[in-house]
Design brief:
The complex is a heterodimer of chains A (253) and B (287).
Chain A: E1 11-20, E2 23-33, E3 38-42, H1 49-56, E4 64-69, E5 73-74, H2 82-88, E6 89-92, H3 104-114, H4 120-133, H5 149-161, E7 167-171, H6 179-194, E8 198-202, H7 206-212, E9 215-220, E10 223-228, H8 230-235, H9 240-250
Parallel strand pairs in A: 3-8, 3-9, 6-7, 7-8
Antiparallel strand pairs in A: 1-2, 1-4, 4-5, 9-10
Helix pairs in contact in A: 3-4, 3-5, 5-6
Chain B: H1 15-49, H2 53-60, H3 63-103, H4 110-125, H5 128-142, H6 151-176, H7 180-188, H8 193-223, H9 235-246, H10 250-284
Helix pairs in contact in B: 3-4, 3-6, 3-9, 3-10, 4-6, 5-6, 6-8, 7-8, 8-10, 9-10
The chains are: A alpha/beta (253), B mainly alpha (287).
Bound molecules: adenosine-5'-triphosphate (ATP) and magnesium ion.
Chain lengths: 253, 287
Amino acid sequence: MTQGQQVDPMLSVRGVWKAFDGHPVLRGIDLDVGASEVVTLIGASGSGKSTLLRCVNGLETVDAGQILLDGSIDVTDPSTNLDQVRRRVGIVFQSFNLFPHMSVIDNVMLAPRKVLGHSVEVAREDGMRLLKQFGLADKAGEYPDRLSGGQSQRVAIVRALAMRPELMLFDEITSALDPMLVGEVLDAVRALSRDGLTIVMATHEMAFAREVSSRVCYLHGGVVLESGDPSTFFDQPVHEQTKMFLKRINAPR
Amino acid sequence: MNTPAPGADVVFVDPQRRALRQRKARRDALVGMLSLIGFVAVVGFLLARSPGWIAVQETFFDPEQFADSFPGLLEAFLLNIRIFLIAEPLILIVGLLIALARMLKAPIFLPIRVIATIYVDVFRGVPTILVIFLLGFGVPALGLEGVPNDPIFWGTAALVLSYGAYVAEVFRAGINSIHPSQRMAARSLGLNSWQTDRFVVIPQATRNVIPPLLNDFISLQKDTALVAVLGPIEILRRAQIDASFSFNYTPYVAAALIFIALTIPMTRFADWVQARAMRRRRAGAVA
Ligand SMILES: Nc1ncnc2c1ncn2[C@@H]1O[C@H](COP(=O)(O)OP(=O)(O)OP(=O)(O)O)[C@@H](O)[C@H]1O
Ligand SMILES: [Mg+2]
């Protein structure tokens, strides 16, 4: 399916439509994400950022259009095995959704063991390495109800990373945190982007978006209304709607 | 009086206030005690003066009768315990299987889902004692080859079927109580539907249903006595026999005490588990 010499983007969203109960949320979204890119989705509440991210790893079905991974696997094709897709696409949510009945390390090891078939030893070693990398080594035996919000969210990131995804989706992963704890989670994302992981994230942290993004996309009216590299996007927005949104976001709350 | 410096890392209670609190606590305890003693004295006095008291005492609380029948009752109670210990694990298995069957979503499983639903509807609707009658007298009456006609077997089977329906509903409620985001998180990691149930949903659901299940166990303990209608000499039947010999109801009272001796610890345990689960949930709710 490769066209000529062109390298397929890691993720290609093509004309995706999605409605809930007759209310259109996505109206023909197009978005390409290349390897090691960090693409940030911004937009008003309800503009469909979460919906788009959930469509990408098949947690939500689309009404029309295609979502291609590596130009070859079509997430929207009903015959595609979504469990296979989800091995390659990790997602972290605003509400950490850790498994409360398992210790931190068991949370991290579950999918590598059951989905990838790793042995306990391999999964544990790998998991401990990741936990250490994110400053959580001493929390391995702890249960989620003993963690702070920032620690919980970092565990959720490690849990998703343990599957070695090629593409990582972050859905407002700092929104549920105390302002004091946002920094440690952003540091983790920063480290991942530096390591070259491909990331698509929705966020309200504009300063952070400007710092780490390779591209910023503004969702409005169910489409990507405007996108560009962070400095152009934030400093010289073109569309009236984008300007208004940025002004509102930057105004002291 | 030495007051610590403001901000000092100590617990500081004004000594006068402390003394006041202690006095009040002592007074409260004393009033409670006196009130209870007074109440018991008045009730006891009224009972003893009531015309039928002597008769009641002789019929229900005859020490000699009590001593005579107690060992036999205790021995018969072993049968109740045996029925309970065999029925309980089977009930848990039946309940969990039925709950899972009712949650199968694929269209091909529609028959299983329908059967499971009918089972629950029927056995929750029919009184347990009726199920015991039907199975215990009905099935052996068929005289089928290779089918046991032991009343204990059928009594236990009836308890399993009847309680299995209740426990299935408890499990189902427990599974439904797990927030969809847990399932979503598991699926997003690549776990398939079955793995998600097996490793994420069911373990949490099981934990949530332990308190209600303990309550069902307690009531099962008592309902083992229903098997008496089929004739095996368990504790109620034993008491009945003793009572009919002596025209005295003391054996029934003794049997009641034996049941209570077993259920009270179990009830306290259930309360404790429930309180602990509540604390856990409150702590977990922060996340
Ligand atoms: N499962 C659902 N059922 C019905 N409506 C839904 C569902 N999920 C999302 N929606 C609706 O779709 C719209 C887009 O929601 P979405 O969560 O994608 O927005 P968002 O951009 O992520 O907003 P926020 O910034 O508040 O997270 C909203 O109007 C929401 O009410
Ligand atoms: Mg959202």
